[in-house]
Amino acid sequence: NNTTSSSNSTEVDAEVPAPSAAQNDTAHRTEALQKTLQEHSIQHVSDKALAELVAAFVDMPDEQQTRAHGFFCHVLSQNYCTPATLLTVVEERVQEHHGRTDTPSPDDALGLLLASVLTADHLSLKQIFSGLQAANQADLYLRIVQCLHTTHGYSEDKLLQLHESSGIDVLTLLPSSRRTSANASDLLLRFGLRFLLPHLALEEQLLQEMQMRFGDGFVLGDARRALLKWVKENVKSINAKVLFAFASATFTLVFDRVTNADNEPSTLTAEKKTAEKALLQAIAPLMKPLAGEDVGRQMHIVYALQTFCHSKGFPKGLMLRLTMLLYDLDVVDEPAWLKWKEEINEQYPGKGDALISVNEYLNWMETAETDEDEDED
Length: 377
Known about the structure:
Strand order of the largest sheet: 1-2-3
Strand content: under 5%
C-alpha cells in the first residue's frame, strides 16, 4: 500500500495484495482489502484495486458473492470510490468477456451486485441505464431489472413507474437497426420483463380487435364503433404510446392482409392498391379523434409509420402511399409532417430511408400549403 501522511489521518490508495499459495482463494482479495480498510483511515480505493475486486467477485461462489454485496455497499457508503467508477469498472469487465465462450458470462453476478447497490441507494436506475445504454450493455441492464423484480421484490407496477418517472425507454437499449417492436418483445421476454413496454401488448390486442372487427364483409360504421368502444373500455388514457400502438396495429393489418398478402409487397397491382387504400381509409380516421390537432401526437403516428416501414425493409412505394393517405384523410396535418421532416430523433430507426421515400411529396405539401395561404391573402 502507498501511504501519505496528513495532519489527522492516513490516506491509503488501497491496492489488493496478491494471494499466497496457501490463500489461493478468490475471496482472499476482498478479505485482504477489508482488513486494509479496517486497519487504516482509508480515503480512496484506486481504480486498479476496484477492478481487481470486481474480477475476484465474479469468480466467487454464490454464497460468497452474496456476502460481498455488503462489502461493495460499504466501500460506496464511505466514499472510498464513486458509484460512477464502480459502474465503469463493471462495464469494462462485461466488455472484456464479450465474445468469449470459455468462461461463464459475468452478467448474472454483476447484475445482482448492481441491483444490491441500487437498493442501497448508491446508484439510481437512471444512472445505471444511461451508463449501460452508452456501453451497449442491454443484457446486463435487463438482468439488473430482473434481479430487482425476482430477488428484491420490486413489483411490475413499481418497476414500470420507476422507468416512466426516470424517462427510461428500454427500446433504446437496442441498436437503431434492430429497434422494432418484435425485437424488443423478444428481448424482454427472455428476461420475463415484457411488462416494461405495455404498449407492445396493447398493439397486439388492438391488432386482434382490428382483425376481428374489420374482417370479411364488415359494416364500416359498426366496425368503427366497436373498435372505439374497446379502446374506451381498455385504455386508461390516450397518450403518445397508445397512438403509436394504434397506428402500428393499423399498418400491420393493412400490410399483412393486403400489401403482403401474396408475399410480394413490392408488386403493387391496381387491385391491391385499391384494397390497401380502402382498408386504411376504414381504420385510419379513428386516429384523428385520438390525436386531435396536437402536433406532437400526430408525429407519433408518423414515427409509427417510419418504424413499421423500417421493420419491413421499406418495400417500394409503401411509405409514400401511406403518407399520402394519412395526409389526404386529415389524420396527420402538414405541420406535423414538416416538423417530423426536420426533427432528429434517434429513438426511431429508419429516418433516412423514410425521408428519401417521401421528401419530394413533403416539398410539394409545403409548397401547396404556402400557395393556399397566399390565395387566402
